[in-house]
Design brief:
Elements lengths: L4 H11 L13 H10 L6 E5 L6 H7 L4 E6 L2 H11 L6 E5 L13 E5 L8 H14 L5 E7 L6 E2 L2 E2 L5 H8 L3 E12 L5 E11 L1
Parallel strand pairs: 1-2, 1-4, 2-3, 4-5
Antiparallel strand pairs: 5-9, 6-7, 8-9
The protein binds S-adenosylmethionine.
S-adenosylmethionine binds next to helix 1.
Length: 205
């Protein structure tokens, strides 16, 4: 029987401890560093697309950010984050949606995506993602994105991924998004594996 994307991710978060999955980071350091370097005010509206159970929102709430949205295809992922945040969960907007089918109802200053876009292996999925991105951002908005690098793994969570360097990501995002910064990061998985990520910061023209 075909397992849908949503069923796959629901199952992952129902059956695995959040700190045991390969993409787990004790602290989302590259993202926090990128936000610091951008010198964004804490009033900025940020969406973490495919945020899963990441602690990015926790760390930003501590730093005084208050306009935070976390979107994920898997409700159980958001349940993990909400349980961890306890009373502070009410300070975050939660959206259960497939980003390729979602139409944002507002615009965000920061669109953050760590390890989600790379699952879109079909051109039409990437087109749908870009439609959401274009609806959910405005000129001046920044996009912080991380995918597996060309020498990164070919699969993540058992699913095939498309790997990118900065130039290839810039082609995907198109001329409406100017590449401001790019760097590579070697992520260490909880099991001690090493994975090369490509990070990019784009600004919408
Ligand atoms: C590799 S995990 C990364 C999670 C998080 N960004 C982090 O860095 O910890 C990929 C996440 O994307 C979510 N996801 C996968 N495909 C998605 C889609 N089409 N729309 C929204 N979320 C999706 C998964 O449920 C999962 O939480």
């Amino acid at each position: 029987m075909m397992v849908t994307k949503r069923e796959h991710w629901d199952e992952v978060y129902r059956t695995k401890a959040a700190n045991s999955v390969s993409w787990y980071q004790p602290t989302p350091e590259p993202s926090l560093r990128a936000l610091e370097e951008l010198q964004l005010p804490a009033t900025a509206a940020l969406i973490d697309v495919g945020g899963g159970a990441s602690s990015l929102a926790d760390r930003l709430l501590e730093r005084g950010w208050f306009d935070l949205t976390i979107l994920d295809i898997a409700a159980p992922a958001l349940d993990v984050a909400k349980a961890r945040l306890q009373g502070d969960a009410g300070r975050v907007a939660w959206i259960v949606a497939d980003v390729t089918e979602w139409r944002p109802g507002r615009r965000y200053d920061v669109w953050h995506d760590r390890a989600v876009f790379h699952f879109l292996t079909e051109p039409e999925q990437r087109l749908a993602y870009r439609h959401a991105l274009e609806t959910g951002t405005a000129p001046g908005s920044v996009v912080i994105i991380a995918t597996f690098a060309p020498d990164g793994p070919e699969r993540c969570s058992g699913l095939p991924v498309q790997r990118y360097d900065a130039a290839a990501l810039a082609v995907e995002f198109g001329s409406a998004f100017a590449l401001e910064r790019d760097w590579r990061e070697e992520h260490t998985t909880p099991g001690g594996g090493r994975q090369w990520f490509q990070w990019c910061v784009f600004r919408r023209r």
